Amino acid sequence: MKNKFTYIAVEDEPLQLTNLIETLDHRLDLQLLVSFESAREAFDYLSDPKKERPDLMFLDMQLPEINGLQLLEAIKHFSPKPKVIITTAFEDYAIPSYEFDVSGYVVKPIDSAKLNKAIDKAIADLKNERKKHPGEAPFASDNDPADLFVKVENRMVRVLPDEIIYLEGANVNVKIVTTSESLLTRNTLKKMEALLPDEHFMRIHDSFIINLKFLKSYAANYAHVHLDDRKMPIPVGKKYRNKFKNRMLDHLL
């Protein structure tokens, strides 16, 4: 049985984060992996298969852009999930948070006795699970690691990269056009490009990324992707033309 249980902390208030970590440092059985100021950063970490998986997550509820409940919704397909202990100044989230099987709900200002009680419960549950499943990885996802979760209005939406036809960026918004729907998310095309697999996606314009699986034809200035029952022309930017042309030549028969 491991001597230390790892954790991440998600808290946007620096003083609250410092107080939480200092309290947790008194426990010899816990080790901090990393802390985050936003739920989006935490989700990116948890969904990256290259990152070390935490045993526990201490989660604030009132966070910028995406709140704690939305993060819990986004990771609910991960199995087994890290044990979650809510640390918040608000009691309103208590009932909805327990729908996600959290290990504890501690209201700020944090009472160390109540926090330790929640930690003890979470660790006991972890130990029992590992006795039942000794060979199981500590944290894994039922989804393909490449699956994306994007914020659309006030909800997190799962997007399968294989179903994306193209993405169109405009300032801090990105329109994602899939085989079944069109989604608008507050993000940048550069950030979306970094999340998509290189083998299928290519940026061909300052404002467009296409999924090459849906490419039907191309010319010097345009690529045509299959959208519904028609071909949708996507402009090829001047600075992207040589790279696009060379990639197409690699597939020339």
What does this structure look like?
The chain has seven helices and 15 strands. It is α/β, with parallel strands linked by helices and 253 residues long. The radius of gyration is 22 Å and the shape is elongated. Strand 13 and strand 14 form a beta hairpin. It folds into two domains: 5-132, Rossmann fold; 148-250, LytTr DNA-binding domain (OB fold (Dihydrolipoamide Acetyltransferase, E2P)), CATH 2.40.50. It starts with a strand and ends with a helix.
Features:
5-stranded antiparallel β-sheet; 5-stranded parallel β-sheet; alpha/beta; OB fold (Dihydrolipoamide Acetyltransferase, E2P); elongated; Rossmann fold; 2 domains; 7 helices; 253 residues
Give the class-level CATH name of the largest domain.
Answer: Alpha Beta
**Proportion in helices:** 25-40%
For this entry, what is the oligomeric state of its chains?
single chain
Name the beta content range.
25-35%
C-alpha end-to-end distance: 57 Å
Number of helices: 7
Number of domains: 2
Strand order of the largest sheet: 2-1-3-4-5
Largest sheet: 5 strands, parallel
| The named CATH superfamily of the largest domain | Response regulator
CATH fold name of the largest domain, please? Rossmann fold
Shape: elongated
Strand tally is 15
Q: Uncertain segments of ≥5 residues (pLDDT<50)?
A: 135-143
Secondary structure category: alpha/beta
Radius of gyration: 22 Å
What is the averaged pLDDT score? 87
